[in-house]
Amino acid sequence: MSASSHTLAAAVAGARFADIAEQYAPDAVLESYVTGRRETAEGAQAIARAWPGAVGRGEVVRSQRTDLPGAVELDLQRAAASGPVRRVHRFELADGLVRRHVVYPAKPKEDPVLPEGCPAGVAPGTVRELVHDGLSGANLFRAELETGEPVVIKHIRPADDWMARATADPGREGLLYVEGVYDALPAAIGSAVIGAEAVDDGWVLLMRDLTADRRALLDSADPRSWERMLAAVHEMHEVLRGRPPSAALCSVSDRLRLFSPVRPFVEARGSDTLPKMLTTNWECFAEHGPADLVHEVFRLADDPSGLLAALAGSAPFTVLHGDFRPQNLALSPAGVTALDWGLACYGPPELEFVWFLSNTAWGEDQERDDLEAAWTRISGTARTSRAADLAVVYHAVMGEISFLLTESRNQVAGFARPAPATARWWLRRLDRALDRLGSLEPRRAELTAGV
User: Which residues contact 219 (CB under 8 A, 6 or more apart)?
Assistant: First the structure.
């Protein structure tokens, strides 16, 4: 009997493994990240024993199914005795059978309920859920203004957002709007935020609905578009270089620790997806990365003071978007519009470029080489500059190379994954950067400062 998305969805919703046991290949593997560690079961009998813990119990109150070539994704939320529980299931199919079944925890979705009359100008009764793949704790909704214009509403609650907690975020996106930082952006780049109101538990943002523009951009995957994005953000860096325009900006120190090896333990009681997967990422890096690079990255993760001190002296600081990648951008003839400024920070521009490069060029080496050359032309900085090398090391310590290595090896077929060449390119780039930089040990004066 061949596996179908319909029968898989029905069985998972009803928590009945027996209904689809024969649809699993004899050597099928169940991987669960529910506890924060990668736990596996192989074969029908072992999967049957692990099924209750991975699937969960309770009535399904929300569900979404996505069919992909050779894969199925089920997003289910249950009303459990302890409260709502949401899990995302990814099935990899081959020859009509389930080969892999991966289960991720996820933060439960909430009904589209906002403070009465907030935000102003929204037509009553038009607020509804917006399906998205964001990994922070913010809630997003669709709505229409009284004029009929479609908008997106973002409810930011820093206390309930793991990224906000990790980066000391007081409601960064709302404060940047109120303080006029978005208004100071050059014409080549803008923010989608058109209104922000402080509420008891955080902020409510009103944003232009750029869904169609974003989808068209992601579907095109045109390197010429990537260069337009880099040119726009470089102009922003130049215009906002100097004194930080807002105290709400994230520090490079907090951003460095966002995906640290200890984050899963800090967020152990939460249900957010990404913190639950970080341990696996770091374990994969430790197991498969070159021993000398693994040692240096973990040493700097344990004590990044020397790296941060070197970064502070490497290049003039400016405002960075902080999560500048195509998934957060829309492109039009008028320029680039950037969404999700929740990680906006103050640091050297090279951090922005390395983040963009690692989240964009997932193909062969030529893509990354071409983008590095493009950034050199646009910014006027050499790809082997000290600031560029420090940015590569920074993102390795942040966990970006461990993520790319893990995704290239373990991502379910049918979903976006980096080519195997991607992680190898970054490991070579990291090795060269560390060779050129030399010691990043903190100086004695730095260790004793403030004691």
Answer: none
Give per-residue pLDDT as tens, 82-100.
899 999 999 999 998 999 9
**If residue 253 lies in a helix (H) or strand (E), which one and from where to where?**
helix 252-256
By CB atoms closer than 10 A (0-12, 13-18, 19+), residue 39 is middle
Phi and psi dihedrals of 446, rounded to 5?
Answer: -70, -40
Instruction: Report the C-alpha gap between 389 and 296 in whole angstroms.
Output: 14
Tell me the C-alpha distance between 397 and 361, whole Å.
20
Q: Give the pLDDT band (50/70/90) at residue 451.
A: very low
Compute the 3-state secondary structure of the chain and give helix, strand, coil in percent, each to the nearest 5: 45, 25, 35
Q: Which two tokens stand for residue 69?
A: 């070539």
Ordered by where they begin, the domains of the chain are 5-105 (3.10.450.50), 128-208 (3.30.200), 215-448 (3.90.1200.10)
> Is residue 390 within 8 Å of 439, Cβ to Cβ?
no
The interaxial angle of helices 420-437 and 365-379, nearest 10 deg, is: 50
> What is the DSSP-derived secondary structure letter of residue 19?
G
Q: Within its chain, how far is the Cα of 109 from the centroid?
A: 18
C-alpha–C-alpha distance, residues 314 and 311, integer Å: 5
pTM of the model: 0.93
